[in-house]
Amino acid sequence: MFTLKMESIAFNLGPIPVHWYGIILGTAALVGLLLAVQEGKRFGLSPEFFMDLLLFGVPSAIIGARIYFVAFKWDEYKNDLPSVFAVWNGGIAIYGALIGAFICGFIYFRYKGYNFWRIADICAPGLLAGQMIGRWGNFVNQEAYGGPAEESFLRDTLHLPGWIVNQMNVEGVFHHPTFLYESLWSLVGIIVLMVLRRRPFLRAGELLFSYFIWYSIGRFFIEALRTDSLGFNGPSWLASFVDALWSPMTVLGFEQGYLDPAYGNIRISQLLALFLVIGAIALIIIRRQTGLAKARYLDPIISTKTGMPAGAEAASSDAAAAQHADRTNKANDETDLNTKE
């Protein structure tokens, strides 16, 4: 049967190949930026603030993602160090990207004089949008897919278009499009976060925690379908516990993807997803009970450097400049009048 496989290289700039993976990641970053800029305007934050964040955040995320991935597969890279930098071939871990991005964000927000939780809340839907789009890079590269699936399941049960089904044919075997499952889960999550951020009960930091809860729940169930999971050898009771939590998926007709015993018996991303869900819920409760979450999401964002709401400094500066210009113009008019007299 004829199948069409997408090439990983979009075009060439002379001798330099431009990969679809990079184009998709760039698009993901841009869409995330636009969402943050749009919401930031409501709080007086300038687009330049988020553009600078993107310039620092994207490299930090890529570096963190690659370090995280390579660290757990060091045996495969230690004898081929140049391949460590070949991120265009895939092999980046989203949790590593989040670690890198959040470290960068914490430093940047403190430098700018803003509370970390307030700005992170604004960025949360953009993060999810970036992940939603970025997963299509895995689609083009034919990576991060799930275990074998019947072609009829993809075409007739899921009603996927032929160009997706064909790309899921890897060396003659059709696979679950886990990139698509996660992308759709993220899309629904964006809607959920956008509804939540207009609710008056939401406290500072809780939209970010909601992002972690939503994404991690989806990641827990989708991760077990994949065949390339990073793993480790843990106690058998823990492996059984994780499998039991995932077992409702079997009712829907899904089976877990292959996990190489050489990597372990527990998928790292599944376990981390559980910790994030529990940790996020615990932090919401603790911060409310201890009074650390006094500020609400809809409250003005106050600069820790000036004590003024975000954007007020610029407005004050503009007003002062306008007054100075007005006084200058009046003085010039008086000078001209005296000269004429």
From TrEMBL:
Residues 312-341 are annotated as: Disordered. It is found in: Cell membrane. Its EC number is 2.5.1.145. It holds the Pfam family LGT. Residues 324-341 have a biased composition (Basic and acidic residues). GO terms for cellular component: plasma membrane. One of its GO terms (biological process) is lipoprotein biosynthetic process. Residues 312-323 have a biased composition (Low complexity). One of its GO terms (molecular function) is phosphatidylglycerol-prolipoprotein diacylglyceryl transferase activity. HAMAP family: Lgt. NCBIfam families: lgt. Catalyzes the transfer of the diacylglyceryl group from phosphatidylglycerol to the sulfhydryl group of the N-terminal cysteine of a prolipoprotein, the first step in the formation of mature lipoproteins. Belongs to the Lgt family. This is Phosphatidylglycerol--prolipoprotein diacylglyceryl transferase. It comes from Paenibacillus phyllosphaerae.
